[in-house]
Amino acid sequence: MLARAFDDGEKLLREFRTAEPDIRAVIAVITTCFGNGGKVFTAGNGGSMADAMHVAEEFTGRFKKDRPALPAIALADPTHLTCVSNDYGFEFVFSRPIEALGKPGDVVLLLTTSGNSENLIKAAEAATARGCLVVGFLGKGGGKLRSMCDLVVMAPGDTSDRIQELHMFALHAIIEAVEIELGYE
Questions:
Q1: In this model, does residue 128 exceed pLDDT 90?
Q2: What is the DSSP letter of 63?
Q3: Distance (Å, whole) CA 119 – CA 43
Q4: Element spanning 166, H or E
Q5: Rounded Cα distance, 15 and 32, in Å
Q6: Of the chain's two ends, which shows fewer C-beta atoms within 10 Å, N or C?
């Protein structure tokens, strides 16, 4: 099982190299966003929520070097999630904070292995309405969300675990590149 998992991961990582131009574009838009005083919102469900939180804390905390905190918000506050779920429905848990806080030039980074979660689709709609750039880290063809994103990083594979691993691999590289682009080498 372990050999199969490592072989599968290695094969998919080689295949994922084709996403490099898209990853470079994401580096550019996040660098521009931060450079212009904007913020990055991150969102996902389940394991992708954990990854969204991880990305935000890497920006607000530190990654490899000490530097000023960068404005990133994981849309993961449990009181917000339960309040909005109770009052409006789970499909609005990510769109409501984007409606409240999103500004033109902000980046909304959505992580999903299927691209069909209604709450992420509504987040993309809210982001577009607020003038935010929508970046999708997607898998399995991207689902409904693919056409709603300004930029897409598509992970190969047909299982959520491998897709999420590739997403985090790319996101760590993006965070490091953004730090370098902003002069925090």
A1: yes
A2: S
A3: 9
A4: helix 160-181
A5: 28
A6: N
Give the residue among 166, 180, 177, 163 at the shortest CA–CA distance from 27.
177
pLDDT above 90: residue 105: yes
User: Could you tell me how far CA 63 lies from the centroid of its own chain?
Assistant: 16
* Full DSSP string of 113-165: SSS--HHHHHHHHHHHHHTPEEEEEEETT-GGGGGG-SEEEEEP-SSHHHHHH
Note if the pTM is more than 0.85: yes
Structure tokens at 98: 């984007």
Dist CA 94 CA 75 (whole Å):
6
Do 61 and 175 contact (CB within 8 A), yes or no? no
pLDDT digits (tens, 9 = 90+) for 159-178: 999 999 999 999 999 999 99
**Cα–Cα separations (whole angstroms), residue 125 to 61, 93, 108, 120, 130:** 29, 13, 11, 9, 9
Give the position of tokens 């691993």: 165
